[in-house]
Amino acid sequence: MKPKEQIVDLADQYIRAKGYNAFSFYDIAKEVGIKTSSIHYHFPSKTDLGVAVIEKELAFITAMIQKNADCSPLEKLNIFFSIYHKIKEANQVCLVGSLATDFMTLDESIQNALKKFSLTILNWVTGFLEEGKRENVFNFSCQPRIKALLIIGNMLSIVQLSRLIDDADFNSVKKAIQKDLLNQ
């Protein structure tokens, strides 16, 4: 892995584990075994690094959405769930959940990147919910965007809450969301 990629990956881990404001270039330099000036070579400011972390995740999500565009709405829902499952299995929190807590302290460019990332996920979930409703796969009474916000909010929350309470609650929430959508 190239040093630039190592720096971005480590920053991502720090953001998810400690929060954006709780780490420095020094922390990354120490762990990677380089000087902070080497980090500044790739990322002149911490803001640049924060944006790079979000852009890496945005590229991953965008590619995943495109790769699975022909899947059924139910398959897309399960792919969405798998994202949070992987985050939970890694004992992390999602990037949006972590950065949202620091939002008011972030530079505008990070705020804008985070909004773009969040809207990408929201639009994707809204889209497959609309598709599922049209195809009579999903049944819900509110607007698809509102349902998407409710589902995303539940998954953001349960990843964090399941660290504090019973781990089984994570799967229970996923099943409840799916059962509610399928009206079973």
Structure description:
With 184 residues, the chain is mainly α. The protein has a domain at 55-182: Tetracycline Repressor, domain 2 (Orthogonal Bundle). The protein is built from nine helices and no strands. The protein has helices at 3-18, 25-32, 36-42, 46-67, 73-89, 95-101, 108-134, 144-164, 168-182. α2 (25-32) packs across α3 and α5 (73-89) crosses α7. The longest helix has 27 residues, at 108-134. It is elongated. The model has no long low-confidence stretch (mean pLDDT 94).
Question: What keywords describe this structure?
Answer:
9 helices, 184 residues, mainly alpha, Tetracycline Repressor, domain 2, elongated
Which helices and strands occur, and which strands form pairs?
Blueprint: H1 3-18, H2 25-32, H3 36-42, H4 46-67, H5 73-89, H6 95-101, H7 108-134, H8 144-164, H9 168-182
Order of H and E elements: HHHHHHHHH
Shape: elongated
| Class inferred from helices and paired strands | mainly alpha
Radius of gyration: 18 Å
End-to-end Cα distance: 47 Å
CATH-assigned homologous superfamily of the domain at 55-182? Tetracycline Repressor, domain 2
Number of helices: 9
Largest sheet: none
Q: Name the helicity range.
A: over 70%
Q: Segments where pLDDT lies below 50 for 5+ residues?
A: none
| CATH architectural group of the domain at 55-182 | Orthogonal Bundle
Strand content: under 5%
**Count of beta strands:** 0
The CATH topology name of the domain at 55-182 reads Tetracycline Repressor, domain 2
CATH class of the domain at 55-182: Mainly Alpha
The mean pLDDT is 94
